[in-house]
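Q: Please design a sequence for this.
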């Protein structure tokens, strides 16, 4: 894909591999035009510069000033207040999953990875505590039993049940019969087996009469 007149490419976080970095940087300075590429890394991610010396990446001169700028921190905090907790939880989970393969290059173990991710969530995204994750997701990441992870129960799926009219009952049928007053349910006599058998014999008698009339 060719996007003309791209003068600046900014990458946040580690590229998946060197090809991904090269592909992204190649979106700028095309067809003889100038351009810049910036990659933003944490202190722990700065190993990328050492293992990829073939790239002409130079540290930003004002890095310390940016990191220690109180105004920048306040701006980030204000921006994070407008992001809902569910989105932050997804970002936290994605960060853990993406960084897990880089443990060896980062020189850390899974416990330290979780600590780093928790710091990212609370200091970077303004979460009051590390976002919770389901046990199944944690197991897939290979982080089962690692201290610092907050487990939560899976959210039950909401079900919408369409209301239907209740089935006709003996009481409701009795109230609808002609000549029967609308009695409260408490005053309607209970249905007995005798009533049921008598009604059945009456229906059979009517059917016999109708059959005989048709035959004559």
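A: Design:
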């Amino acid at each position: 894909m060719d996007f003309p007149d791209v003068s600046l490419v900014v990458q946040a976080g580690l590229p998946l591999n060197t090809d991904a970095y090269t592909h992204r940087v190649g979106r700028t300075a095309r067809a003889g035009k100038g351009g810049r590429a910036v990659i933003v890394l944490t202190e722990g991610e700065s190993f990328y510069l050492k293992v990829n010396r073939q790239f002409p990446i130079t540290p930003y001169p004002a890095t310390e000033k940016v990191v220690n700028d109180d105004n920048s921190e306040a701006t980030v905090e204000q921006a994070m207040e407008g992001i809902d907790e569910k989105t932050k939880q997804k970002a936290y989970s994605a960060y853990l999953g993406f960084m897990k393969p880089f443990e060896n290059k980062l020189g850390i173990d899974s416990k330290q990875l979780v600590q780093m991710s928790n710091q990212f969530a609370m200091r970077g995204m303004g979460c009051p505590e590390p976002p919770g994750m389901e046990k199944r997701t944690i197991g897939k990441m290979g982080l089962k039993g690692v201290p610092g992870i907050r487990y939560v129960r899976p959210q039950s799926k909401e079900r919408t049940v369409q209301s239907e009219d209740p089935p006709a009952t003996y009481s409701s049928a009795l109230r609808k019969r002609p000549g029967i007053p609308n009695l409260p349910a408490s005053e309607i006599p209970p249905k007995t087996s005798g009533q049921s058998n008598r009604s059945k014999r009456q229906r059979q008698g009517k059917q016999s009469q109708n059959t005989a009339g048709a035959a004559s």
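Q: Thanks. Anything notable?
A: Residues 157-171, 173-177 have pLDDT under 50 and may be disordered. Strands lie at 8-12, 36-40, 133-134, 151-152.
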